[in-house]
Amino acid sequence: GVDCGAGSPTCCRQEFFVDFKEIGWEDWIIQPEGYHMNYCSGLCPLHMAGVPGLAASFHTAVLNRIKAASAAAAVDSCCVPTQRRPLSLLYYDRDSNIVKTDIPDMIVDSCGCT
Amino acid sequence: AAQGSWCPACGVAALAPGTQRDALLALAKQSILAKLRLPARPSAPQPPSRGVLLSALRRMLPGMLRDGRGPARLQEYETLSFAESGSSTSNSARLHFHFSQEVAGSTEILQATLYLFWAVPGRGAQPVTVRLLGPNTTVASETRLEVHRPGWSTLDVGAAVRSLFTQETPRLTVELEVPEDWGSPLPSNHSDSHWPFVVAQAQARRPRRVHRR
Predict the structure, then answer these.
(1) Rounded to a whole number, what is the distance in Å from the CA of B158 to chain A's nearest CA?
(2) pLDDT tens per residue, range B73-110
Protein backbone atom coordinates (compact mmCIF):
# COMPACT_ATOMS: atom_id res chain seq x y z
CA GLY A 1 0.00 0.00 0.00
CA VAL A 2 0.93 3.62 -0.49
CA ASP A 3 0.88 6.31 2.20
CA CYS A 4 -0.56 9.59 1.00
CA GLY A 5 2.06 12.20 0.18
CA ALA A 6 1.36 15.79 -0.61
CA GLY A 7 -1.48 15.77 -3.12
CA SER A 8 -1.06 12.25 -4.44
CA PRO A 9 -4.22 11.69 -6.47
CA THR A 10 -4.22 7.92 -6.53
CA CYS A 11 -5.40 5.49 -3.87
CA CYS A 12 -3.35 5.80 -0.68
CA ARG A 13 -3.58 5.54 3.09
CA GLN A 14 -4.28 8.88 4.77
CA GLU A 15 -2.96 8.98 8.32
CA PHE A 16 -5.24 10.56 10.90
CA PHE A 17 -4.59 10.52 14.65
CA VAL A 18 -7.33 11.25 17.18
CA ASP A 19 -5.84 12.53 20.44
CA PHE A 20 -8.24 11.49 23.25
CA LYS A 21 -7.12 14.48 25.32
CA GLU A 22 -8.10 16.79 22.47
CA ILE A 23 -11.64 15.43 22.39
CA GLY A 24 -11.92 15.32 26.20
CA TRP A 25 -11.93 11.52 26.47
CA GLU A 26 -8.71 11.10 28.44
CA ASP A 27 -10.57 10.76 31.75
CA TRP A 28 -12.43 7.58 30.83
CA ILE A 29 -10.03 5.99 28.34
CA ILE A 30 -6.99 4.93 30.34
CA GLN A 31 -4.93 3.61 27.41
CA PRO A 32 -3.97 4.28 24.65
CA GLU A 33 -3.59 8.07 24.36
CA GLY A 34 -5.23 8.21 20.98
CA TYR A 35 -6.61 6.34 17.99
CA HIS A 36 -4.99 6.05 14.56
CA MET A 37 -8.14 6.39 12.47
CA ASN A 38 -6.30 6.16 9.19
CA TYR A 39 -8.49 6.00 6.10
CA CYS A 40 -8.16 5.27 2.41
CA SER A 41 -8.68 7.99 -0.16
CA GLY A 42 -7.70 8.76 -3.75
CA LEU A 43 -8.61 7.61 -7.22
CA CYS A 44 -8.54 4.15 -8.63
CA PRO A 45 -8.25 4.60 -12.38
CA LEU A 46 -9.00 1.56 -14.48
CA HIS A 47 -5.37 0.62 -14.99
CA MET A 48 -4.98 0.45 -11.21
CA ALA A 49 -8.02 -1.72 -10.57
CA GLY A 50 -6.93 -4.61 -8.45
CA VAL A 51 -3.52 -3.09 -7.63
CA PRO A 52 -2.67 -4.17 -4.99
CA GLY A 53 -6.19 -4.19 -3.51
CA LEU A 54 -8.13 -7.37 -3.59
CA ALA A 55 -6.14 -8.67 -6.52
CA ALA A 56 -5.89 -11.95 -4.82
CA SER A 57 -9.60 -12.38 -4.74
CA PHE A 58 -11.42 -14.35 -7.38
CA HIS A 59 -13.88 -11.56 -7.95
CA THR A 60 -11.15 -9.11 -8.89
CA ALA A 61 -9.69 -11.58 -11.34
CA VAL A 62 -13.08 -11.98 -12.98
CA LEU A 63 -13.65 -8.23 -13.06
CA ASN A 64 -10.28 -7.71 -14.69
CA ARG A 65 -11.24 -10.21 -17.41
CA ILE A 66 -14.48 -8.36 -18.01
CA LYS A 67 -12.63 -5.08 -18.21
CA ALA A 68 -10.09 -6.50 -20.61
CA ALA A 69 -12.86 -7.80 -22.86
CA SER A 70 -15.02 -4.72 -22.71
CA ALA A 71 -14.10 -1.45 -21.07
CA ALA A 72 -17.77 -0.45 -21.24
CA ALA A 73 -18.63 -3.30 -18.91
CA ALA A 74 -16.07 -2.18 -16.35
CA VAL A 75 -17.31 -1.18 -12.90
CA ASP A 76 -15.89 1.55 -10.64
CA SER A 77 -12.89 0.56 -8.58
CA CYS A 78 -12.72 1.83 -5.04
CA CYS A 79 -9.85 2.64 -2.70
CA VAL A 80 -10.32 0.35 0.33
CA PRO A 81 -8.33 -0.96 3.30
CA THR A 82 -6.29 -4.07 2.52
CA GLN A 83 -4.77 -4.56 5.97
CA ARG A 84 -6.29 -3.69 9.35
CA ARG A 85 -5.52 -4.42 13.00
CA PRO A 86 -7.38 -4.19 16.30
CA LEU A 87 -7.60 -1.16 18.57
CA SER A 88 -6.77 -2.26 22.14
CA LEU A 89 -8.65 -0.14 24.70
CA LEU A 90 -8.46 0.05 28.52
CA TYR A 91 -11.28 2.22 29.83
CA TYR A 92 -13.66 2.94 32.73
CA ASP A 93 -17.26 1.92 32.15
CA ARG A 94 -20.13 3.83 33.78
CA ASP A 95 -19.76 1.78 36.97
CA SER A 96 -16.07 2.76 37.14
CA ASN A 97 -15.08 -0.81 36.39
CA ILE A 98 -11.85 -1.11 34.43
CA VAL A 99 -12.53 -2.84 31.11
CA LYS A 100 -10.07 -4.02 28.51
CA THR A 101 -11.10 -5.00 25.01
CA ASP A 102 -9.55 -5.37 21.55
CA ILE A 103 -11.87 -3.99 18.86
CA PRO A 104 -11.09 -5.87 15.63
CA ASP A 105 -10.24 -4.14 12.33
CA MET A 106 -10.15 -0.61 13.71
CA ILE A 107 -6.74 0.58 12.49
CA VAL A 108 -6.03 0.69 8.74
CA ASP A 109 -2.46 -0.29 7.93
CA SER A 110 -2.62 -0.22 4.14
CA CYS A 111 -4.99 0.61 1.25
CA GLY A 112 -5.49 -0.61 -2.30
CA CYS A 113 -7.88 -0.63 -5.24
CA THR A 114 -10.63 -3.22 -5.55
CA ALA B 1 -19.65 10.32 2.91
CA ALA B 2 -20.88 13.22 0.82
CA GLN B 3 -24.11 12.48 -1.04
CA GLY B 4 -23.64 10.82 -4.38
CA SER B 5 -19.98 10.03 -3.86
CA TRP B 6 -19.07 6.60 -5.12
CA CYS B 7 -16.42 5.87 -2.53
CA PRO B 8 -16.83 5.84 1.25
CA ALA B 9 -13.87 8.19 1.71
CA CYS B 10 -14.33 10.35 -1.36
CA GLY B 11 -16.66 12.72 0.49
CA VAL B 12 -14.03 13.48 3.08
CA ALA B 13 -11.51 14.66 0.51
CA ALA B 14 -14.05 17.15 -0.82
CA LEU B 15 -14.55 18.90 2.52
CA ALA B 16 -12.68 22.01 3.63
CA PRO B 17 -9.76 21.10 5.93
CA GLY B 18 -11.37 22.37 9.16
CA THR B 19 -14.69 20.71 8.41
CA GLN B 20 -12.88 17.61 7.33
CA ARG B 21 -11.10 17.31 10.69
CA ASP B 22 -14.33 17.90 12.63
CA ALA B 23 -16.09 15.27 10.52
CA LEU B 24 -13.33 12.75 11.13
CA LEU B 25 -13.25 13.42 14.89
CA ALA B 26 -17.03 12.96 15.03
CA LEU B 27 -16.69 9.74 13.02
CA ALA B 28 -13.98 8.46 15.36
CA LYS B 29 -16.15 9.09 18.45
CA GLN B 30 -19.16 7.46 16.81
CA SER B 31 -17.15 4.46 15.68
CA ILE B 32 -15.52 3.76 19.07
CA LEU B 33 -18.77 4.18 21.03
CA ALA B 34 -20.59 1.92 18.57
CA LYS B 35 -17.95 -0.81 18.85
CA LEU B 36 -18.06 -0.58 22.66
CA ARG B 37 -21.88 -0.64 22.47
CA LEU B 38 -22.03 2.56 24.52
CA PRO B 39 -24.85 5.04 23.91
CA ALA B 40 -22.55 7.85 25.06
CA ARG B 41 -19.18 8.25 26.76
CA PRO B 42 -19.32 7.19 30.46
CA SER B 43 -19.65 10.16 32.80
CA ALA B 44 -16.75 11.06 35.14
CA PRO B 45 -15.37 7.75 36.46
CA GLN B 46 -14.25 7.17 40.07
CA PRO B 47 -10.78 5.63 39.62
CA PRO B 48 -9.65 3.24 42.35
CA SER B 49 -6.67 4.25 44.47
CA ARG B 50 -3.24 3.36 43.13
CA GLY B 51 -2.59 0.81 45.89
CA VAL B 52 -5.86 -0.99 45.30
CA LEU B 53 -5.26 -1.13 41.53
CA LEU B 54 -1.67 -2.34 41.79
CA SER B 55 -2.65 -5.03 44.28
CA ALA B 56 -5.44 -6.24 41.97
CA LEU B 57 -3.20 -6.23 38.88
CA ARG B 58 -0.62 -8.24 40.80
CA ARG B 59 -3.17 -10.89 41.78
CA MET B 60 -4.83 -11.44 38.42
CA LEU B 61 -3.96 -14.15 35.98
CA PRO B 62 -0.74 -13.14 34.20
CA GLY B 63 -1.46 -11.09 31.10
CA MET B 64 -4.98 -10.06 31.96
CA LEU B 65 -5.85 -6.40 31.33
CA ARG B 66 -2.55 -6.14 29.58
CA ASP B 67 -1.87 -5.31 25.96
CA GLY B 68 -0.56 -7.64 23.33
CA ARG B 69 -2.86 -10.58 23.94
CA GLY B 70 -3.34 -10.71 20.16
CA PRO B 71 -6.62 -10.40 18.26
CA ALA B 72 -9.16 -13.03 19.13
CA ARG B 73 -11.75 -14.21 16.63
CA LEU B 74 -14.51 -12.73 18.72
CA GLN B 75 -14.19 -9.45 20.61
CA GLU B 76 -13.26 -10.20 24.22
CA TYR B 77 -13.77 -8.09 27.33
CA GLU B 78 -11.82 -8.32 30.60
CA THR B 79 -13.51 -6.43 33.42
CA LEU B 80 -12.01 -5.54 36.79
CA SER B 81 -14.75 -4.58 39.24
CA PHE B 82 -14.03 -3.33 42.78
CA ALA B 83 -16.56 -3.98 45.55
CA GLU B 84 -19.06 -1.40 46.67
CA SER B 85 -19.81 -1.94 50.37
CA GLY B 86 -23.42 -2.56 51.40
CA SER B 87 -25.13 -3.29 54.72
CA SER B 88 -23.02 -4.83 57.46
CA THR B 89 -23.06 -6.04 61.08
CA SER B 90 -20.22 -6.40 63.57
CA ASN B 91 -18.88 -9.58 61.90
CA SER B 92 -20.52 -9.69 58.48
CA ALA B 93 -20.65 -7.44 55.43
CA ARG B 94 -22.36 -7.32 52.05
CA LEU B 95 -20.50 -6.36 48.87
CA HIS B 96 -21.93 -5.31 45.50
CA PHE B 97 -20.17 -5.64 42.15
CA HIS B 98 -21.82 -3.79 39.26
CA PHE B 99 -21.41 -4.81 35.59
CA SER B 100 -22.32 -2.62 32.65
CA GLN B 101 -25.43 -3.63 30.70
CA GLU B 102 -23.65 -2.80 27.42
CA VAL B 103 -21.13 -5.58 27.99
CA ALA B 104 -23.61 -7.92 29.71
CA GLY B 105 -26.20 -7.67 26.99
CA SER B 106 -23.97 -8.77 24.18
CA THR B 107 -21.42 -11.10 25.68
CA GLU B 108 -21.15 -14.48 27.30
CA ILE B 109 -19.05 -14.99 30.41
CA LEU B 110 -15.98 -17.19 30.01
CA GLN B 111 -14.83 -16.98 33.63
CA ALA B 112 -15.21 -14.77 36.71
CA THR B 113 -13.17 -14.88 39.92
CA LEU B 114 -13.83 -13.19 43.28
CA TYR B 115 -10.70 -12.15 45.21
CA LEU B 116 -11.00 -11.80 49.01
CA PHE B 117 -8.39 -10.95 51.62
CA TRP B 118 -8.75 -12.47 55.12
CA ALA B 119 -6.93 -10.61 57.88
CA VAL B 120 -6.92 -13.58 60.23
CA PRO B 121 -6.23 -12.52 63.81
CA GLY B 122 -4.82 -15.21 66.09
CA ARG B 123 -3.68 -18.69 65.12
CA GLY B 124 -5.18 -21.90 63.75
CA ALA B 125 -7.90 -22.66 61.23
CA GLN B 126 -10.88 -20.33 61.45
CA PRO B 127 -14.19 -20.72 59.60
CA VAL B 128 -15.51 -18.03 57.28
CA THR B 129 -18.63 -18.12 55.09
CA VAL B 130 -19.13 -16.60 51.68
CA ARG B 131 -22.71 -16.37 50.39
CA LEU B 132 -23.71 -15.32 46.88
CA LEU B 133 -27.11 -13.65 47.05
CA GLY B 134 -29.72 -13.71 44.30
CA PRO B 135 -31.61 -10.65 43.02
CA ASN B 136 -34.03 -10.68 45.96
CA THR B 137 -31.19 -11.33 48.49
CA THR B 138 -32.05 -15.02 48.78
CA VAL B 139 -28.96 -17.16 49.22
CA ALA B 140 -28.05 -18.58 45.82
CA SER B 141 -24.96 -20.39 47.05
CA GLU B 142 -22.97 -20.69 50.28
CA THR B 143 -19.30 -21.61 50.61
CA ARG B 144 -17.58 -22.35 53.94
CA LEU B 145 -13.82 -21.90 54.05
CA GLU B 146 -11.19 -22.74 56.65
CA VAL B 147 -8.65 -19.89 56.79
CA HIS B 148 -5.31 -20.59 58.46
CA ARG B 149 -3.37 -17.36 57.99
CA PRO B 150 -3.79 -13.80 56.67
CA GLY B 151 -3.86 -13.75 52.88
CA TRP B 152 -5.90 -13.74 49.70
CA SER B 153 -8.29 -16.43 48.57
CA THR B 154 -10.24 -16.76 45.33
CA LEU B 155 -13.70 -18.06 44.57
CA ASP B 156 -15.08 -19.03 41.17
CA VAL B 157 -18.20 -16.92 40.63
CA GLY B 158 -18.52 -17.57 36.91
CA ALA B 159 -21.92 -19.24 37.17
CA ALA B 160 -23.29 -16.48 39.42
CA VAL B 161 -22.08 -13.70 37.11
CA ARG B 162 -23.33 -15.62 34.07
CA SER B 163 -26.82 -15.73 35.56
CA LEU B 164 -26.60 -11.98 36.30
CA PHE B 165 -25.90 -11.10 32.71
CA THR B 166 -29.50 -11.82 31.80
CA GLN B 167 -30.71 -9.05 34.16
CA GLU B 168 -31.36 -5.41 33.32
CA THR B 169 -28.77 -4.11 35.78
CA PRO B 170 -26.29 -6.90 36.47
CA ARG B 171 -25.19 -6.70 40.09
CA LEU B 172 -23.41 -9.45 42.05
CA THR B 173 -24.08 -9.35 45.81
CA VAL B 174 -21.73 -11.23 48.15
CA GLU B 175 -22.12 -11.63 51.91
CA LEU B 176 -19.09 -12.39 54.08
CA GLU B 177 -19.37 -13.74 57.61
CA VAL B 178 -16.39 -14.21 59.94
CA PRO B 179 -15.99 -15.28 63.62
CA GLU B 180 -17.27 -12.73 66.16
CA ASP B 181 -13.85 -11.84 67.50
CA TRP B 182 -12.53 -10.74 64.05
CA GLY B 183 -14.68 -7.67 63.74
CA SER B 184 -15.64 -6.60 60.20
CA PRO B 185 -14.49 -8.89 57.34
CA LEU B 186 -13.70 -5.78 55.25
CA PRO B 187 -10.70 -3.43 55.35
CA SER B 188 -11.51 -0.09 56.96
CA ASN B 189 -11.72 1.86 53.67
CA HIS B 190 -11.93 1.57 49.85
CA SER B 191 -8.32 2.62 49.27
CA ASP B 192 -6.95 -0.27 51.27
CA SER B 193 -4.90 -2.52 48.99
CA HIS B 194 -6.81 -5.51 50.37
CA TRP B 195 -10.13 -4.28 49.01
CA PRO B 196 -12.12 -7.15 47.37
CA PHE B 197 -12.56 -7.27 43.60
CA VAL B 198 -13.91 -9.48 40.81
CA VAL B 199 -12.19 -10.14 37.48
CA ALA B 200 -14.50 -11.34 34.70
CA GLN B 201 -13.59 -12.41 31.18
CA ALA B 202 -16.35 -12.25 28.57
CA GLN B 203 -16.56 -12.79 24.84
CA ALA B 204 -18.93 -11.27 22.30
CA ARG B 205 -21.78 -13.63 21.64
CA ARG B 206 -21.35 -15.62 18.46
CA PRO B 207 -23.57 -14.20 15.74
CA ARG B 208 -26.52 -16.53 15.39
CA ARG B 209 -26.11 -18.61 12.22
CA VAL B 210 -28.61 -17.79 9.52
CA HIS B 211 -29.59 -21.00 7.74
CA ARG B 212 -30.17 -20.68 4.04
CA ARG B 213 -33.30 -22.37 2.78
Answers:
(1) 17
(2) 678 889 999 999 998 998 999 999 998 877 777 788 88
